[in-house]
């Protein structure tokens, strides 16, 4: 089978779900305000165990992809659907995907319009009750990671745990609060490789905004929780080892991240946008003051 002939693989169980129609739609420009329910597959009522769709996005990261696939194959959680969306890699990723077809329910290897377009394609191809994104280079920490995150039951719209962030010669466990404030989400997003999202929530909120380059997953969470009143639950389990060298961690992208967050804030939360901006400025000043012990003591005594 040649690369051209195998760029799109569909498991037999997906053929009857009209995937070709949805693929065609996703290859068209996605309006910023598009509603996901207009083209997501309708969900059937299930009496069996909840199905979890694990979605991996990859582009020319074959070594990372191998690690990610192996960690998914090791999971003990029942009823997992595994989906791999590759952006037309030329580094051997395609061959790695082909050699693991027994563990992959659906994959595609073709050019896309960016990571959020690829993530939206993964959502459209999925049939699980819940979705979790584990992109190439990330891996579940143990074979029981997904089972622990999803136990004892799945009910809330969003269920999130903790991650281990890996950088050069440095690893750090990042924990998240049980109760989320607007500032909690604004200053740092929930960790998508340690977060289960109810698939139907994408019908309520919409798919990822492809006009944003870096913070569309953050935008989804802040709109879901604070505008659409999505339910959520924190589970104090360490789920994923996360590659901390992505675009969001690059200092060169800091201004773009701030600009995209500000766009979301003023578009979706205009009544509190100025207050949030002022509060963030004050918090930044507070951090600066605390770095200077003498100044901190003087100002604390003054006020």
TrEMBL record:
Q: Which SUPFAM superfamilies match?
A: Nucleotide-diphospho-sugar transferases
Q: Where is the Glycosyltransferase 2-like domain?
A: 53-188
Output the Gene Ontology terms for molecular function. Answer: hexosyltransferase activity
Report the superkingdom from the record.
Answer: Bacteria
One of the Pfam families matching this protein, by short name = Glycos_transf_2
Q: Per its UniProt record, what CDD domains does this chain match?
A: GT_2_WfgS_like (cd06433)
Entry protein name: Glycosyltransferase
The organism of origin for this protein: Spongiibacter pelagi
